[in-house]
Amino acid sequence: MSDVLVDVDGLKVHFPIKRGIVHDRTVGYVYAVDGVDLAIRRGETYGLVGESGCGKSTLGRAVLRLSEPTAGRVVFDGTDLAQLSGEPLRRMRRRMQMVFQDPLSSLDPRQSVQSLLVEGLRAHELDRGAEATAARLRELLDVVGLPANALRRYPHEFSGGQRQRIGIARALTVEPDLIVADEPVSALDVSVQAQVLNLLEDLQAQFGLTYLVIAHDLAVVRHIADRVGVMYLGGIVEEADADALYTEPRHPYTRALLSAIPVPDPEVEDRREQILLTGDLPSPAAPPSGCRFHTRCPWRQPSRCDTERPPLREIRPGHRVACHYAEDIAAGRITAPTGLSASRG
Amino acid sequence: MALLEVDDLSVVFTRKGEQPVVAVDGVSFDVDPGQTVGLVGESGCGKSVTALAIMGLLPRRGVRVSGSVRFDGTELLGLPAAAMRDRRGRDLGMVFQDPLSSLNPVVPIGLQITEVLERHRRTPRKKAMVQAGDLLTRVGIPDPRRRLDEYPHQLSGGMRQRALIAMALACRPKLLLADEPTTALDVTIQAQILALLAELVRAGDTDLGDTDLGDTALVMITHDLGVVAGLCDEVNVLYGGRVVERGPRHPLFAAPHHPYTVGLLASVPRLDGPRGQRLSPIRGSVSDNIPWTSGCAFAPRCPNVLGACTSVTPEMEFGPDERLLRCHNPVPAPQEVRA
Ligand SMILES: Nc1ncnc2c1ncn2[C@@H]1O[C@H](COP(=O)(O)OP(=O)(O)OP(=O)(O)O)[C@@H](O)[C@H]1O
Ligand SMILES: Nc1ncnc2c1ncn2[C@@H]1O[C@H](COP(=O)(O)OP(=O)(O)OP(=O)(O)O)[C@@H](O)[C@H]1O
Ligand code: SF4
Ligand SMILES: [Mg+2]
Ligand SMILES: [Mg+2]
Questions:
Q1: Which residue lies with its CA nearest to atom 2 of ligand 2?
Q2: Residue A185 alpha carbon to ligand 4 centre in Å
Q3: Alpha carbon B202 to chain centroid distance?
Q4: Has residue A340 got a pLDDT over 70?
Q5: Residues 193-252 of B with CB under 8 A from A
Q6: Of B199, B202, B271, B302, which to mutate for an interface test with A (greatest number of A Cβ within 10 Å)?
Q7: What is the CA(A320)–ligand 5 centre distance, in A?
Q8: Residue ranges of chain A that CATH labels 3.40.50.300
Q9: pLDDT score of A145
Q10: Distance (Å, whole) CA A4 – CA A38
């Protein structure tokens, strides 16, 4: 058994932009995911970060085959998902579940918690008689920290954090191997986020789950993930162990992103050196040529950056970067013009 | 005298056939000229309603507002609508979380700014247009001449927020209220906007010419403790519609004393902290709160809870380190624990 559970290879998801009333003309594409390679190992948490619209959710959905890839493949536990259909695909699907950002909109308000949970069991023929099912439901509520009387209640009767627990319980009903959690805590109150993050960690330890956690909050991702991939405009620009990524970021975008995050400590804030990026995020419908980051990159070089797309290459074991000049920038051989970074003191 | 004095402000929403909602429950704080004051707290704690009450933007019907909001010595609560509107354009500026909803979608950006200048400063149209261009430059919008003719939907989220800030600053207000101005933005764009706000309110270290704000005061409303830590001179922590802790940012973050503030700081993962440590969440959620009239609203979630907490309402008083606190059993300073 390979230690890789999910292998994503050259994955592209392009959405056609249609115009016209009579004839649906395709006038362009949104390059939501545009050439992603990544591997998620069994039992690890892979964190995916990036700004709004960079393609995180689309990638997550493609991994679960909820959106059809334009190119590339997703291999789950040794099987190429594209080769499956019908019953075998459905059986494979049971092993991967999704937890959504907004627990309320992903739970049917007219269904009681009991019926929400039983539904998952039924869909995969896992309800083995009333007694066994009842025991299973009690067990599920217990592991996610909800009271047993929750079964008769409806989603709106719960707080945001409790609803997220219901969403997690529902994902767990079918005993999955992989959970894709798309912004699992971003709709929650700050004081409640920690409850859900701790729960996710406990469940992983208890059931040996593999996670793909998608979030825009880098502090959250760093906390929960073993490895982190940073996305920018449809591609992964850097991937490393969570510690290395934060202590030794090598891609200019990662460096800018990390430097932009306010830390709840005035001492740190007064010293924090910021790399302020100029300009806005380009549209994924018209991504820049060459390195997608070159329009905002403080280290951009005239030679190759705007013509040649840098591949994601390994600069040391386990650390991959898509920048032509990662080593030169790290060694200080290429410097950013002054005035681009600002201290906040 | 403080520029803005909010005293015992309460806002109750009353709707026929429904339980009244106490959104703000006795909030008090002051803002000095040139000062940046933070209001921080979780969703629903009353931050936005406080801001709307100060600005006189709450609906007239179905709302009970009490207490006092004095600006430059004048009581704003109960001011006639026209007088309040005048104040709003001239002395008080506001920036909201969602810039689209506060910009007029069918009026070009330039015209929206010049309207403010014409109405409140009686600036002639031509001169106002020039000033509007300067303002857009000032807030970092590239190619401002072209942008003046564009409509809000033609700008990106970050640029819209800049345009809104330009509008709020057009009349050089004495006070700028920013309600989650960066929450809807990406973190790299947030950094730009925060740097802009910090620079705009920083007193007289650069000559900003016609758009100099000198000692504009800023009230920064956010749920993000990081934003507060970097920007605010004075921090007010809100819980359940009341301020529960107040202090200057350095001592407050170094040694928070209210159990809620302590809990909040312990529950957020820190980007710069050691990894692999378990987070310490606050138990329960705001739905467990008890009313302030019967004790401390935070009591059901509080690890420091005492018998008095569920029977006696704590008042805002000086606690350890001369910190203003609303708590019967504050968390001692770290060194006191060691001693
Ligand atoms: N079904 C779709 N049809 C057309 N375009 C789409 C579709 N789904 C997503 N997109 C576009 O693809 C791009 C990537 O979207 P995606 O939702 O994956 O981003 P994201 O990184 O998850 O962003 P966010 O942080 O805002 O959730 C966006 O420009 C989005 O508008
Ligand atoms: N028009 C209204 N009618 C009834 N209740 C309201 C109204 N506006 C706000 N509230 C209630 O008042 C309380 C405070 O709301 P407010 O919008 O001030 O919270 P907030 O601190 O700004 O939260 P957030 O961080 O989510 O913006 C909430 O419980 C809210 O549901
Ligand atoms: S490849 Fe060039 S433009 Fe891209 S991040 Fe590296 S230096 Fe910047
Ligand atoms: Mg998304
Ligand atoms: Mg609000």
A1: B13
A2: 13
A3: 17
A4: no
A5: 194-195, 198, 223-230, 249-250
A6: B271
A7: 40
A8: 4-95+176-343
A9: 87
A10: 10
Mind telling me how many Å the CA of B276 is from chain A's nearest CA?
7
CA B135 to chain centre: 23
Report how far residue A202's alpha carbon sits from residue B299's, in angstroms, rounded to the nearest whole number: 27
Query: Count of CB atoms within 10 A of residue B54's CB?
Result: 23
CA dist B315 and A76 (Å) reads: 59
Residue list, ligand 3 pocket, CB within 6 Å: A 251-252, 291, 293-294, 297, 299-301, 305, 310, 323-325
pLDDT at A38 over 80: yes
Ligand 1: which residue has its CA nearest to atom 14?
A: A55
Residue A52's identity, in one-letter code, is: S
pLDDT at B166 exceeding the cut of 60: yes
- pLDDT tens digits, residue range A187-220? 888 888 999 999 999 999 999 999 999 999 999 9
What length is written for chain B?
A: 339
pLDDT band at A269 (very low <50, low <70, confident <90, very high): very high
Give the pLDDT band (50/70/90) at residue B213.
Answer: low
Task: Give the tokens for residue B70.
Answer: 């004095």
Number of helical H runs and strand E runs in chain B: 12, 12
Residue A88 C-alpha, separation from nearest chain B C-alpha, in angstroms: 38
Contacts of residue A21, defined as CB under 8 A and 6 or more positions apart, other chains included, come to none
Contact in structure between B135 and B169 (CB atoms under 8 Å): yes
The number of the ligand 3 atom at minimal distance from the alpha carbon of A294 is 3
Which range of A3-7, A114-118, A270-274 scores highest in mean pLDDT? It is A3-7
Please, what CATH class does the domain formed by A4-95+176-343 belong to? alpha beta
Of residues B116 and A307, more confidence is placed in: A307
Nearest to A169 by CA among A120, A111, A224, A102: A120
Please give the distance, rounded to the nearest whole angstrom, from the Cα atom of residue B57 to the centre of ligand 5. 14
Q: What is the ipTM for the molecules in this complex?
A: 0.86
How far, in Å, are A65, A84, A90, A92, B264 from residue A87 at the CA level? 15, 8, 5, 9, 47
- What is B20-81 written as a DSSP string? -EEEEEEEEEEE-TT-EEEEE--TTSSHHHHHHHHHT-S-SSSEEEEEEEEETTEE-TT--H
- Indicate if the pLDDT at residue A266 is higher than 60: yes
Is residue A256 predicted with pLDDT exceeding 80? yes
Asked if B270's CB is within 8 angstroms of A264's CB, the reply is yes
Biggest CA pair distance of chain A: 70
Highest-pLDDT range among A222-231, A277-286, B128-137: A222-231
